[in-house]
Amino acid sequence: MSVRKHHPVQRHASHRGLDDLLRPYTKSVVDEVTREIRRQLPEYAQPSDSEYGRRVQETISVTVEHFIDTVGRPAYDREGLAAIYARLGAHEARKGRALDSLQNAMRLSSQVACRRFIEQAYRLGWPSETLALLTDSMFLLLGTVANAAAEGYAAAQEKLASARERHRNRLRDLLVVDPPPSLEALTDLSRAADWGPTSTIGVIALRRPVSRTAHVVPPMVLADWEGPAPYLVVPDPDGPGQDRLLARLVREHPGVIGPTVPLNRGAVSLLWARRAVELVERGVLPCDGVVRCVDHVAVLAASLCEDLIDAAAVRHLGPLLKLPAHRRRTLAATLLLYLNCGDNAITAAERLHVHPQTVRYRIRSLQEMYGGDIVDPDTRLDMSIALNALLRFPAPAATSGTAADPSRDSSG
What confidence score (pLDDT) does residue 401 get? Predict the structure, then answer.
């Protein structure tokens, strides 16, 4: 029976000389690891003569050589190799990829290298302590590079998140500035902020106070919570499914939705949204549900010239202003709707939920007050604006003291 000869290996703590025994197998191990990575991990299946392929093989070679140098040396300086894998982890984060591929490559590399070296150890008859030493050293190396890659990945992600947040805040501010920057500048910043793409935006002006516990919005919504007048910027507000998003936003963060505008006209949307918020707080516009500026154009337009409308009220609404408050409002609401319906009593009655004869009676009463035709084509629009302001805004100062009788109108 033949006796298997053991390759001489020193067994004291430093295991000096073991690296010399492993080194002849370096190239074959590197080649096998490289081959298996390209075969099993498609994302690394780049031609060996490409720049990427050469970098992959170089990293594998450095790692295998480091393993050979550190077998049996737990105190060996691993900072250099850790720095390499920290950079690899950071690279994956910057490319927007998960760390899974790199982790899979590291695990596969350690499995192939460990198997290959242990095969040689068995072939040469190395003692069991040496086999255990190889395995322990491989696990130590794998832990080192895996931790370094994870730390590099996390650090890069944090840095990217901070940079992206800065870009998003800058973009948010520029989207509502007046005069606006160019569309090209906004588009470039949108890419840097990982936001969009979109060609239109809408701005929601929030009502005070804004709850600090509710500062949560979807990623596509840019929010200014800390300014004197908080607001949200919503991309493509008229797009599919955006009605539900807008309804949810104003339910959780009460405010008014400004008009949809091009990307570089956000200041217009914010201006009207804030104006509408003022009217909500005055009780002019409703405070519940989804309030959109585009649904209240007449009121918003009138709000910009209240003094002029007040001054013109006596001219256009003189007979109405002499009536008691309830009768005045009833006849004003009927007349405004009658004009908006093209002088059609039936349509106006349907919208008022009254009989058409009731509408005709009220219109005849108004004609008697005005001494004939209530309006002519040249003053029709002025009359509509004045009626709208009378119904929606507080009583103008010019009419104070009139219509003091609050008695109800019994005529319908």
Answer: 40
Residue 117 identity? F
CA distance 68 to 25: 10
> Is the CB of residue 263 less than 8 Å from the CB of residue 175?
yes
Residue 210 lies in a domain: yes
Query: Any idea which residue has 């093989």 for tokens?
Result: 57
What residues make up the domain containing 315? 305-399
232: β partners = 204, 223
Query: What is the residue-wise DSSP string for 124-182?
Result: HT--HHHHHHHHHHHHHHHHHHHHHHHHHHHHHHHHHHHHHHHHHHHHHHHHT-SS---
Domain closes at, from 235, 260, 287: 287
Packing angle, helices 51-70 and 26-40, rounded to 10: 130
Min mean pLDDT across 169-183, 218-232, 281-295, 365-379 is at 365-379
Place of tokens 């901070």: 162
Which helix (H) or strand (E) covers residue 204, if one does? strand 200-206
pLDDT of 360 > 90? The answer is yes
37 in the same domain as 120: yes
Same domain, yes or no: 283 and 309 = no
Does residue 113 form part of some domain? Answer: yes
The H or E element containing residue 79 is helix 79-94
pTM of the model: 0.58
263 and 322 fall within a common domain: no
231 touches 205 (CB < 8 A) = yes
Closest by CA to 205, choosing from 178, 177, 234, is: 234
* Same domain flag for 222 and 337: no
Amino acid present at 184: E
The last residue of one of the domains, among 287, 316, 343, is 287
Same domain, 200 and 262: yes
Question: Is residue 133 domain-shared with residue 204, that is, in the same domain?
Answer: no
Query: Do 345 and 356 form a contact (C-beta atoms < 8 A)?
Result: yes
For 399, what's the count of Cα atoms within 13 Å in the CB-facing half-sphere? 28
Paired tokens of 37:
């990575």
Structural domains in the chain (count): 3
Angle, CA 301 vertex, CA 249 and CA 320 arms, to 5°: 120
Dist CA 62 CA 27 (whole Å)? 11
Exposed / middle / buried, residue 250 (Cβ in 10 Å: 0-12, 13-18, 19+)? buried
Angle at CA of residue 73, ends 69 and 78, nearest 5°? 65
